[in-house]
Amino acid sequence: MDYTEAYRIVDKRRDKFAEIIEKHFPNLFEAKERESYSGGMLTAELSESNEPFKNTPYFFNEEMSFVHWTSIENLLSIINYREIRLYNLNSSKDPLELEYSAKIFKVEEQDIANLKYHNFTFSFCKSSDLKNPYLWKHYGNDFKGVAIKFSIVNDPLKWQKYILSKIYYDIPEAFDKFLKEVEEFEKQEGTGVIARLKLDKLYGFHKQKSYEGENEIRLSILHPFDFTQEYQKHSKMDWRIDGQRNRITKYISLPLWVDNDKVAKDREKPELDLISPFDDSHFIDKPKLKIENIYFGKNCGLGIEEFGVFTNELKELIDLSFGYRLDDLGPNLYDTAE
């Protein structure tokens, strides 16, 4: 066989594989960054840019207003450090996190462990879910915690590596059909031909049906760093000790937006300014989040008089550190029964 004929066979295989992808995942195929062929292995990878996902199910295109339930201690950490923390999937209470969909795609166990380690996420719900008693009970610690309302104030189409999507509580039928057709394609092409569409960025957006009540919207980044030294510098260790499935996890920080034009400044001692080192240019290719409001659960432990004292201090801190006010932080000891 001469080189011309060999290249013709390779091109034909590549085109046929592309047709299979386009048939089952037409929009994801548009998000494909590159195809490669090496030693009988055909692979197609998804883009690092978020823009090609615009017409796929994995692009959130509704109102960019969300709530995140957490504890009062974590709320104060978010405000004091002016950041949110994206944890890798080892932190999840769900032992089958990511495995559910990855195993359907026949991802090897060691590869699943690697994906969980390098997939960092932060969970929201829609702002309309603020009145959801299930979410207050399970994620607001039975109304003992808080719900932070965030907005995303930049263009997700310009993000790199970050994906914002709803969680889907099943495996799309197209996944199963795609796998069967790829298996048939490999048999037809003969021994040594392997075809893989790398959907590793998307496995974490599927969970089992039993979690459907979460209504989760997930901000996710897979492999945020290219070098080991970057992981060592920017990822931090945390422990999850619950007596059932104790585990070590990692997190990375995502700075919150600070209005540097209005934040507290010290003219005599500029080194004491509260200006954020992360100006608008930092957020060109990353999510830019702003705190819009904070809702305290009815069982947070504060009485009406205490609530006013504590939240006034909180408003002053946000004004000082972020350069904007939360004017609607009045008595809002949240009770969904009201």
Radius of gyration (Å): 23 Å
Question: What's the pLDDT, averaged over the residues?
Answer: 88
Please outline the major beta sheet. Answer: 10 strands, mixed
The oligomerization state is single chain
Kindly, what is the distance between the CA atoms of the first and last residues, rounded to a whole number of angstroms? Answer: 78 Å
Entry summary:
The chain is of the alpha+beta class.
Written account of the structure:
The chain has helices at 3-24, 26-30, 72-81, 99-104, 109-118, 133-138, 173-189, 228-234, 304-322; strands spanning 32-38, 41-46, 65-70, 83-88, 119-126, 146-152, 162-166, 194-198, 217-222, 236-240, 247-255, 289-297, 333-334. With 338 residues, the chain is α+β, with helices and mostly antiparallel strands. The chain folds into two domains: 1-47 and 172-202, 2-Layer Sandwich (GMP Synthetase, Chain A, domain 3); 62-171 and 206-334, no CATH class. Strands 3, 4, 5, 6, 7, 9, 10, 11, 12 and 13 form a ten-stranded mixed beta sheet that branches. Strand 12 (289-297), helix 9 (304-322) and strand 13 form a beta-alpha-beta unit. Helix 1 packs antiparallel against helix 7. The protein is elongated. The mean pLDDT is 88.
